[in-house]
Every structure is written in C-alpha cells, then in structure tokens.
Amino acid sequence: RALEHDPTRPAHEAPVDLYLWTGRRDQALDVAERALERDPRSPYAHADVARVLQLMNRCDEALTHLDQVARGNRPTRTAETRALCHAQAGRWNEAIAAARAAITPSDSSSVSLLAWLLHRAGNSNQAAPLRQVVVDRVRRGRASAVDLALLDAGARDFDAAARRVQEAVDARSFVMAAGVDFVMLTGPVFQELHRRPAFIEARKRLGYP
C-alpha cells in the first residue's frame, strides 16, 4: 500500500526487508522492481533491486543496476552488494576494494565484511586487527554476534559461525544492534555455512522456508 503512494526509499525498503527476512526473495524483487518502474532514477530502488538479485545469484544483473547509481548518491548497501558479487565470482581484489570504500567510523558491518573478504583472500594478517575492532564493537553493543559469525566464516570455522548465528537468533541480539544483517548470510557465497545444523535451525526459528 505504501508503494502505491511513494516509490522512494521509505515506502519500498521496509517491505523489501520484510520479504528478505522471511526468505521470500521473489516478492522482495517484485516490490523493488515496481519502485524502480515508478522512479527509474531512484538510487534506493536500484540498490534494493541489486541487493535482491545478488541474493538470488544473479550478480551480472545486480552489477548493471549498481552501475546506474551515481557515485555521489549511492546508498550504503551498494558497496556491500558489489563486494559480495565480486566475491561470488572469486574477484577478491575488487571485492576488497568495494568493501573498503564503504567503511565509515560508525559502520560495523563494512568492517566485518572487509575482514571476511581479507580472510577468504588469504590475507589473514590484515584481517586480524579488524577482527579485534569488531570484537570490541560487539562488547560495546555496536555490533552483534552475527558480525562474529561472519568473521568465523572467513576463517572457515563454519561450525562456530553457525553456533554464533543460532545464539544471536535465540537472544534476538541482532535485531536492534548495528552490524551485519542476517540476510547477508543467506546469500549464495555462504553456501558452506548453510549446511551446518545450527544455521539451519536458526533459519527455521526466523521463519525461513
């Protein structure tokens, strides 16, 4: 209903997030694409279409949408989506550059994503100090256990990562905390995590199919 009145960010982003949180990617894409039809120049609509396409393993299309967003008017999620798309294709240098470009002093999720990328690219020495930054932010309530799960996944300790996700879901500690969105971990680049029983259980508790 909100989308019928205003296709800008406040109107369409909430239903997109809701559908993604409940595993309904087709519906999320439909909402984002309808917003884009109403305002083809909306950076938020392009960013949300790209985000959903990345989760659906359609990164060529996602990157096309991201390339249409003006550099000075890019929502925060565009860099995250671009980094994940490059990671899915094994383009680690491009993924790391995209994640670095997104980092701000108050943003935990970009730091966690960068640490994960550095681990996966084999640069564990560079990832180590970032991990400590994330741990400190979790301790102060500025990030959640989902951020720590991402770091464990980067170190290829998928059982530990899955347990952290399950703990975060049980405690709902990630709902209000800043940091990595649980939806990110449902993307195709995290397939090795998806097979862990604790992660499967966490998805069920959130209502995922």
Report on the structure:
There is one protein chain. With 209 residues, this protein is an all-alpha fold. The protein is 68% helix and 0% strand. It has helices at 2-5, 9-21, 25-38, 43-55, 59-67, 76-88, 92-102, 108-120, 124-139, 145-154, 158-171, 191-194, 197-205. Helix 3 (25-38) packs antiparallel against helix 4 (43-55). The longest helix has 16 residues, at 124-139. Mean pLDDT is 84; it is low at 1-10.
Supply the number of helical segments: 13
Shape: globular
Report helical residue fraction: 55-70%
DSSP strand count: 0
β content, as a range?
Answer: under 5%
Oligomerization status of the protein chains: single chain
Low-confidence stretches: 1-10
Which structural class fits the helix and strand makeup?
A: mainly alpha
Distance between the termini: 25 Å
The radius of gyration is 16 Å
Main beta-sheet annotation:
none
Pattern of helices and strands: HHHHHHHHHHHHH
The average pLDDT score comes to 84
